[in-house]
Amino acid sequence: MRTYFLALIGGQWFGLDTECVTNVGIYNESKEKGKKELLLPDGNLATVCDLQPLLGGEPASCACPSHYLIITHQGRFIALVMAGKGRFAMVDDTSPRVLPPAFIGIARELIPGAVINCTDVILQLNLEALEKVNDWMASR
Amino acid sequence: MGQGKETITAGGRQAGIRAFLVSLAVDDVAGKVFCLFSQSQVVEILGLRPIQRIPFSPAYLEGVINYFDQLLPVINLDKLCNRTANHKDEGHRQLMVIRTGSVDPTSGEPLKVVIAARTKVRLAKLSAQLLTAPCTGREAPLSLKNTGILRGYFPQDSGGIALIDLSRVALGTLSEVVVAEGKQVD
After folding, report:
1. Residue B152 falls within a domain, yes or no?
2. Which of A104, A119, A125, A140 best tests the B interface by mutation, with the highest count of B CBs <10 A?
3. Do A118 and A20 form a contact (C-beta atoms < 8 A)?
4. Residue B3 lies in a domain
C-alpha cells in the first residue's frame, strides 16, 4: 500500500506520489485562465499545466477547475489545474495495469499505468512527461 | 412451408448467420451502414458506465473502461471510419466488448476492445445467400476503404454492411498501416 495524492481533473482521478506534492493553491479562473506560469509564495515559478482540454467532453459543474496542485520534479515546479482540493488515499499499487497496446506514443508516456480500485480507475501520471505537456499541446 | 423457412437448407441445418449490427455513420454513403460482428466475436453488451479518457490519444479512442480488473480501450467507430471529418460527440447508449483475435505482444493475453455504440446494438439473422451474393458493382465507400481496417463490404439497397478488423487498432499499429498504405497510393 502506498499513499497517493488524488487530483480530480476533467471528472476523473489522477494519482501522484505524495513525495512530489508541495502545495495546493486556489485557482482563480477569471484572473489566471491562459496563464503559462504561476509565481509561488516562496518566489519560485511553476509552469501551469491544464490537462482538462485534453480530456474532451464538457466537465460537470463540480469538476470545474478550482485549485492548483503544485508539484515538484527535479527542482522544477508544475502547477496542475484540478477540481477541488484533491485528497490523500492509501492505494494498493502492487499490480498496476498498463494501458492497452491501442494507446501509443505520448498517451502511453504520460499515463504509464492505472490502479483499479473497485469500479474506480486511478490514472498514474508520469512527471517527466507532464513537464512536456505544454510543448506537446503547442505542437498539435 | 412458409416463407420464414427460407434460411433452412434441405438438410434442416440453418443457413442463416446470427450477427450483431452496430450502426455506423459514413459520410459518403446516403443510406444506413452497419458494422457486422459475429456471435463468437461478441463477449458482452454493457450499459452505460464511466469511460476514463486518456490525454493525447487519437479521437477514435474514447478512453478505457475497467472490465473485470482489465483495462479495455473504448473505440468510437464513427470517428474511426471518418477520421478526416469532424464528427460531433453524440455519446453512446451501449458498450460492446469484442474479441479482436490478436494477442497482447507483452502479456500474450487475447486482446479485447470495447465498441461505443450510439444506438442500440441490433441482433440480426442474415441469410447466407445475402453474404455470398455477388457484388452489384458498387464498391465500398472511400472513407471506409481508407480506414485500413475494412475486411469486407456488402452493399445493400442504399447503404451496406461492413466487416472490419479491429486487431490493428487493438495493437496500436493502425497509424503505421494507414501511413504505409497512403505512401503506396502516392
Report:
1. yes
2. A104
3. no
4. no
Which residue range is the domain that position B91 belongs to?
A: 16-175
Would you say residue B171 lies in a domain? yes
Best of B53, B80, B111, B149 to substitute, by most chain A Cβ atoms within 10 angstroms, is: B53
CATH number for the domain that contains residue B23: 2.40.50.180
ipTM attached to this prediction: 0.89
Q: Which three cell numbers stand for residue B154?
A: 456488402
Task: Give this prediction's pTM.
Answer: 0.85
Domain count of the fold of chain B: 1
Report the relative pairing of strands B110-117 and B70-75 from DSSP bridges: parallel
Q: Are B146 and B139 in contact (CB under 8 A)?
A: no
Give A52's DSSP letter. G
Give which of B19, B17, B18, B24 is closest to B115, Cα–Cα. B24
Q: What is the pLDDT of residues B35-91, one digit of tens each?
A: 999 999 999 999 988 899 999 999 899 999 999 989 999 999 988 887 666 666 667
CA nearest A134 in B: which residue?
Answer: B56
φ and ψ of A61, to 5 deg: -60, -35
Residues B93, B118 contacting (CB under 8 angstroms): yes
